[in-house]
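[agent] plan:
  1. take the single chain provided in the ticket
  2. run structure prediction with default settings
  3. attach C-alpha cells to the ticket
  4. add a short note for the reviewer (M.T.)
[agent] executing step 1
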Amino acid sequence: MDKPALNQPSRRTFLRLGSLAGAGFLMRGSAAGAEERPAPAGAPPRLKVTDLKVYALKTGHTLVEVFTDGGLSGVGECSPMVHGSAIAPLIDRAIRPHVIGQSPFDVEKIWRGAFFGKYKLGPMGIYLNALAGVDIALWDLMGKALGVPCYMLMGGKVRDRVPLYASAMRQHRAPVDEAKHLAGWIERGFTAVKIHPYEYWAFDQGKDDTLEVVREVRAAIGDKIPLLVDVNNSYSVHRAIEVGRELEKYRCALFEEPIAAYDYDGYARLCEALDIPVGAGEQEYTRWQHRDLILQGKVDVIQPDVVKCGGLTELRKIGALASVFNRPIQCHNTQPAIGTAAHYHFWVSEPMCLYHQEYPAEDHPLRDRYPILAEPLPIQDGFLTLPDRPGLGIDLDRQMLKRLLE
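[agent] step 2 finished; step 3 output follows
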C-alpha cells in the first residue's frame, strides 16, 4: 500500500477542518490562523442591545423599550397584575445584565440566561411577568431589523384574521343589566362573549348569582352565540361540579378557572365530572406548569398570557406543548394595546389557537383614556387583522407616553 503524501491531510484532520469551516471559520494555513468570515451581502444586521428602559406609568402599567446600536428599538409590555414600581427595579437589577451587549436575535440565549440565572427569585410569578415585557420588545426588534412582521418569524400565518370574544368584567350590575351590557357587545359586531358573574374570590362564600346571570345573558343574546363563563377561582370542587352541570344546560362554551389555580387534582376531578370544556392557565407561567396542568389537571383548554408567561419565546413553547397533547389554546388577554398586538402574532401563526381569543371589552386606561398607541388596533366585526408592518406592527404615541410618565 502506498504511503500518503507528506502534506496530504489525514481523514481525521480533514473532518476537523470541515467542522471548523462549517462553524463559520475560514482556514488559512492552519487552525491557529483561522479568521472569522466576513458577513455576506444581505446578511441579517449585526445589532447589539445598548440600553433597556422600563416605563412605570402612572396608571400602574409597565412598558419596556430595548435599544440597539443600529438605532432600532422594540417595545414590550409586562403584566399589570403587579404595579410598575415593583417590576421596574426587578428588570433593572435582575434582567438587564442578561440583555445589554447581546444580539436581539439571541432571544433563546437571553431568555434562558435571565430565567435560570435568577431562578431562585421565584420564576412562577412576578419574575416571568417582568421577563415578558423584555422578551416581547426583543421580538419587536427582530421583526423591525429584518423588515418583517413577527408572525413571519414564527412560521407564518395559518389564518388571516383572529376572531375575538368580548370579555366583560362585571361592575356590580344586576343580572338583567349585565345581560343588556353583553348584548351591546354583540350589537357592536363581536360574535362571542365572556362573563365574570362572581364578584368575589372566595371558596363558595359571598353572594353567587352566576346561574341567574347566565340565564339572563343567554336569553338576551340567543342560543347560537358562544358564551364563556369565568368565575375567577371562586368555587370548591363540589360546588364547581354543581354549577358546571347547570352551565351545560345553557350550552356554555367554556367554564374558566372554576377552582383554585394550584389545585391540579381538583381540576382532574372536575373535568372528569363535566362535559362542558374547562379552561385554565393564566396563572401558569411556564411550559412546565402548563405540562402539569394538562397531565395532572386534565384541563380541556389552556389559557396562557403573553405578558405573564415570559413573552413570545415561552408562549411558542407552550403552543408546541398544546400541539403534542391536542389542547386548544384560548389565550388570557387583558391588555388591549401592546399585549393584544403581541398575542395577535401568536394567534395567527399558532394552529392550536382554534377558537375566539380574548379581548378586554371594558374601559381600559391605555386604550380609552390614555391611548398609548399612535393608531388604534383595527378591529372590525369582532375580528382583528393587523397590517403587515415590521415587528409587532405598532407605534407608541410618544407624547402620551411622556404624559403618563410625568
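[agent] step 4 note for reviewer: Residues 126-146 form the longest helix (21 residues).
[agent] ticket updated
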